[in-house]
Amino acid sequence: MTIEVAIVEDQRMMRELLASVLSRQTGLRVVGEASSGAQAISMVRERKPNVVLLDIGLPDVSGMAVARTLQNVAQAVKLIALSVHSESSVVDGMLAAGATGYVVKTAASDEIVEAIRTVAGGGTYLSSSIARSRRDAFMNLGGEPPVTVLGPREQEVLALLADGKRSAEIAFELRISVATVEVHRRNIMRKLGLHTVAQLTKYAIRKGLTPL
Questions:
Q1: The 3-state secondary structure of 75-87, one letter per residue
Q2: Taking the chain (212 residues) in consecutive chunks of 10 residues, what is each chunk's mean pLDDT?
Q3: What is the CATH superfamily name and number for domain 3-127?
């Protein structure tokens, strides 16, 4: 299935760069571009993309306001916030407004592509620098990341991994592609700071996602 993406970014050079990068990716198609919040709302109404890359620093209205409006206009659309800011207050504000992804503009292009595939598949995505910072904060407090750092789909994938299911079996059960399962697996490991299926299984048991 082709993922249709819309880009909302007021800087023309950045917008064209994103469009160029995405146009070279298999399974992705850019269906619209906008440079303001008003244009974004109109475009989403008309073209109904699967994913919107949303710059939170638009000239006419805040990214949070646009995100809330887009959620009302097209509830099925997935939003990924793009920003130079990585402060927790800003990230949490965009997630609360309806974004399921947050990518800093200094991220590599492959991270943006992975974010698109992740949120389109029902997961959540945070830039690696943000996810690492949050994970380290929990570790410094003597704990481990709560299961809520994972999106609902990621929790489902984690539970099935812990039950011993292979990627193909998980894909069949959740009706997603094997590639999407692998993306979820990488994101789960990155968010939790874990590196093996055995570690994931122990974590899932501790959090009650799978029986002993």
A1: CCCEEEEEECCCC
A2: 93 93 93 94 93 92 89 88 87 88 88 90 83 69 75 87 92 89 88 88 87 65
A3: Response regulator (3.40.50.2300)
